[in-house]
Design goal:
Helix 3 packs parallel to helix 5. This protein has helices spanning 78-87, 99-106, 112-120, 125-132, 142-150, 155-160, 172-182, 195-198, 233-248, 261-278, 285-298, 347-362, 436-451, and strands at 2-6, 16-22, 29-30, 35-40, 45-49, 54-59, 66-68, 72-77, 251-259, 304-307, 310-313, 319-321, 323-325, 333-335, 338-339, 376-379, 399-403, 407-413, 416-430. The strands form five sheets. Strands 9, 12, 15, 16, 17, 18 and 19 form a seven-stranded mixed beta sheet that branches. It has a four-stranded antiparallel beta sheet with strand order 1-8-6-3. The protein is globular. The protein has two domains: 2-188, RNA polymerase II/Efflux pump adaptor protein, barrel-sandwich hybrid domain (OB fold (Dihydrolipoamide Acetyltransferase, E2P), Beta Barrel); 251-451, Chloramphenicol acetyltransferase-like domain (Chloramphenicol Acetyltransferase). The chain is built from 13 helices and 19 strands. The chain is α+β, with helices and mostly antiparallel strands. 32% of the residues lie in helices and 22% in strands.
Length: 460
């Protein structure tokens, strides 16, 4: 029997999606719920599982194609899977491990991608056969196996890595994160003692793909000293959205300086209690989110949108918080998950929501609803050391708040010089609705709220 796979609809407003990458090809064996492709929309990136077990007999679209939702994109032959499954045990499980790679390499037609990926990692036949599942029940995609081969990661190490995919599945980002943390000094050979001699330059913590001189990514430059890199779907969506925003809203910028010393001392005093209760650290961002929420309650015209000549005020304060995803070498992407009804949450509740959404964003688990309905956005380039930014408004909102880095500086207080933890906040706003008086008043409220932080405020 043949099962049709269609492009899923990732939300009511999503009409099409772009195929970012096929993880399987025609002739490859797949299992039900195994991730076989990655797609991108203007809202989220998602990994799509197979609807049934079998062999892929047809792929109707290529990587980069934009496909309407509910359109057939592939066919899976479930009958073919049965015959392959019956034939699989006929391999040589009793052979010595040394002969397994040779036997597999000699017969690539049986299942080329999985077996080649497994043997390249130096695993014995009973550890790398069966559609690149490991010796246990954990499945590894061809992409993961390819990355493991490239960076010399053994099967035993793969099995020890925590997975952030569906059901604990190990995905590409999990492997790359491990490479970033540990480095990939070992060669493809399973013998660890050969690693220093084989790749002495990559024995440090940095990935082998990154050169040691200056941290400049290794690229295949053209003869003219340039390289053309096509925009991915996310970067195209960001570009279109930003250009449209600048064409729509007359942008004005106001900047306020805030003394964060009181907040910093309180945060430091409460950090251990927070980590013990919540399991993650309390960053500065939730403080700004709470202050912004309080400010928007006081100044509702900043929590609005414009429809022709009508101003639409929003009852709920849905705070968008920009999250950078990817890495500098490949170009950061940006997505803005939304904390819905933030006015109903306290500081701890906002911190929980922010942490959950950030983790989902970086592991590609965001749902369309997670990024929809924002009424005001906060972006935080300060985490990269930026002092002042002038961000572009996230349409159809009318303002966005930019957080600069918190740095210690000498300031004058009561005619005396003191060392304080200072931060610049920038409000970008649509001058059709928000003027300088309103924008400045909003920033002044944030300053007073944060500088007047109660040192005796309980955490819970």
């Amino acid at each position: 029997m043949k099962v049709d796979m269609v492009m899923p609809q990732m939300g009511e407003s999503i009409a099409e999606a772009t195929i970012s990458k096929w993880l399987k090809q025609v002739g490859d064996t797949v299992e039900k719920d195994q991730i076989i492709l990655e797609i991108s929309t203007d809202k989220v990136d998602s990994e799509i599982p197979a609807p049934a077990s079998g062999i892929i007999s047809e792929l109707l679209f290529q990587q980069g194609d934009v496909v309407p939702v509910k359109t057939k994109i592939a066919t899976i032959d479930t009958a073919a899977n049965a015959s392959v499954g019956a034939a699989a045990p006929a391999s040589k499980p009793a052979d010595a491990p040394k002969s397994a790679p040779v036997a597999q390499a000699a017969a690539p037609a049986a299942s080329p991608s999985p077996q080649q990926a497994g043997t390249a990692n130096g695993a014995p036949a009973n550890g790398s056969a069966a559609s690149h599942a490991s010796s246990g029940s954990r499945f590894y995609s061809p992409l993961v196996m390819s990355l493991a081969q490239k960076h010399g990661i053994s099967m035993s190490v793969l099995e020890s890595l925590p997975g952030s995919g569906e059901g604990g599945r190990l995905n590409k980002q999990d492997v790359l994160s491990y490479v970033d943390r540990q480095g990939s000094g070992a060669s493809a050979s399973p013998a660890p003692t050969s690693a220093p001699a084989a790749r002495p330059a990559s024995s440090g913590a940095a990935p082998a793909a990154k050169p040691s001189s200056g941290g400049i990514p290794s690229l295949d430059w053209g003869a003219d000293g340039t390289k053309v890199v096509p925009m991915d779907t996310m970067r195209q969506a960001i570009a279109d959205h930003m250009v449209r925003s600048k064409q729509t809203s007359p942008h004005v910028y106001s900047i306020q300086e805030i003394d964060m010393t009181a907040v910093s001392k309180w945060r430091k005093a409460k950090q251990d209690e927070f980590v013990k209760a919540e399991g993650f650290k309390l960053s500065f961002t939730p403080f700004f989110l709470e202050a912004a929420m309080k400010g928007l309650l006081k100044f509702p015209y900043i929590n609005s949108s414009l429809d022709g000549k009508k101003i639409i005020l929003k009852k709920n304060i849905n705070l968008g918080c920009a999250v950078a995803i990817g890495d500098a070498e490949k170009g950061f992407g940006l997505i803005v998950p939304v904390i819905k009804r933030s006015e109903e949450k306290n500081l701890v509740g906002i911190a929980r929501s922010l942490n959950e959404l950030a983790l989902k964003a970086r592991s590609k688990k965001l749902l369309p609803d997670d990024v929809a309905g924002g009424t005001f956005t906060i972006t935080n380039p300060g985490v990269f050391g930026t002092l002042i930014g002038t961000p572009i408004i996230n349409q159809p909102q009318v303002a966005i708040l930019c957080l600069g880095a918190i740095v210690k500086r000498p300031v004058v207080i009561d005619d005396m010089i003191a060392i304080r933890e200072m931060c610049y906040l920038t409000l970008s706003y649509d001058h059709r609705i928000v003027d300088g008086a309103l924008g400045g008043s909003f920033l002044a409220y944030l300053r007073d709220y944060l500088e007047g932080w109660d040192p005796n405020r309980p955490l819970y």
